[in-house]
UniProtKB/TrEMBL annotation:
It is found in: Cell membrane. GO terms for molecular function: ATP binding; P-type potassium transmembrane transporter activity. The keyword Plastid does not apply. Keywords: ATP-binding, Cell membrane, Ion transport, Membrane, Nucleotide-binding, Potassium, Potassium transport, Transmembrane, Transmembrane helix, Transport. It comes from Crenobacter caeni. This is Potassium-transporting ATPase KdpC subunit. Part of the high-affinity ATP-driven potassium transport (or Kdp) system, which catalyzes the hydrolysis of ATP coupled with the electrogenic transport of potassium into the cytoplasm. This subunit acts as a catalytic chaperone that increases the ATP-binding affinity of the ATP-hydrolyzing subunit KdpB by the formation of a transient KdpB/KdpC/ATP ternary complex.
C-alpha cells in the first residue's frame, strides 16, 4: 500500500516538471525575445531618432546626443550646467550628483569658484547668477540650461563673437523648449552652440 502511494507521488512530482519547463521556455521566448523585438521594432518605426539615442549629426559626423550634456568652456560658446561626474568631463559612465548639501562648505567653495570663472570669462549682466550655471544637476549630465542661464551668457558670447545681442537672443528663443507644466523654459546647449554663426 505504502509502495503504491510513494509510486503515485513520484509520478505526480514527475508530472509537474514537464509543464513547469514548458512554461519557463514559453515565457522566456515571449518576454525575453519576442516582446523586446516587438518594442524595438515599433520604436524604430514610430520614433527612430529617439530610439537610437537622439543623436545629433553635423556634416555626416555624430557630435553628441540631445540627451547627454557636454563640456563647453570656450568663452565664445554658451556653457553647460557644471557636471559632478569627474570635474568637467561629463562622463556618461559615471552619472550622479555631487551629494553636497546646501550647508556644506565644499559646495560654497565650488560655487564661488564657478561664479569667479563666469565673471573672468567676459562681461556678465548685473544681478544674481542663475543657479544652474554654478550647481551640478542630480545626474551630472544635464544637456539643458534654463532660459535665464542662456540669457545671462549673452554679453560674453556677443563680445567674443562680435555679434549683436539681439541676434543671440533671437537664436536662444528659436532653441527654447517649453515644459508641459508651467513655464519651465530650457535650452539644449549643444544645439544652441551648433547654431551659433561661425
Amino acid at each position: 500500500m505504502n509502495i503504491a502511494i510513494e509510486q503515485q507521488q513520484g509520478r505526480d512530482k514527475a508530472g509537474v516538471w514537464g509543464p513547469a519547463a514548458r512554461m519557463l521556455l514559453g515565457l522566456s521566448l515571449l518576454l525575453g525575445i519576442a516582446y523586446p523585438l516587438a518594442v524595438t521594432g515599433v520604436a524604430q518605426v514610430l520614433m527612430p531618432h529617439a530610439a537610437n539615442g537622439s543623436l545629433i549629426v553635423k556634416d555626416g559626423k555624430t557630435v553628441g546626443s540631445a540627451l547627454i550634456g557636454q563640456n563647453f568652456q570656450r568663452a565664445d560658446e554658451f556653457w553647460s550646467r557644471p557636471s559632478a561626474t569627474g570635474g568637467s568631463a561629463y562622463n556618461g559612465a559615471g552619472s550622479g550628483g555631487s551629494n553636497l548639501g546646501p550647508s556644506n562648505p565644499a559646495l560654497h567653495k565650488v560655487v564661488a569658484e564657478r561664479i569667479a570663472a563666469l565673471k573672468a570669462a567676459g562681461p556678465v549682466p548685473v544681478g544674481p547668477v542663475p543657479q544652474d550655471l554654478v550647481t551640478a544637476s542630480a545626474s551630472g549630465l544635464d544637456p539643458h540650461i534654463s532660459l535665464a542661464a542662456a540669457l545671462y551668457q549673452i554679453p560674453r558670447v556677443a563680445q567674443q563673437r562680435k555679434l549683436d545681442a539681439a541676434r543671440l537672443r533671437a537664436l536662444i528663443d528659436a532653441h527654447t523648449e517649453h515644459g508641459w507644466f508651467g513655464d519651465n523654459a530650457r535650452v539644449n546647449v549643444l544645439q544652441l552652440n551648433m547654431a551659433l554663426p561661425r
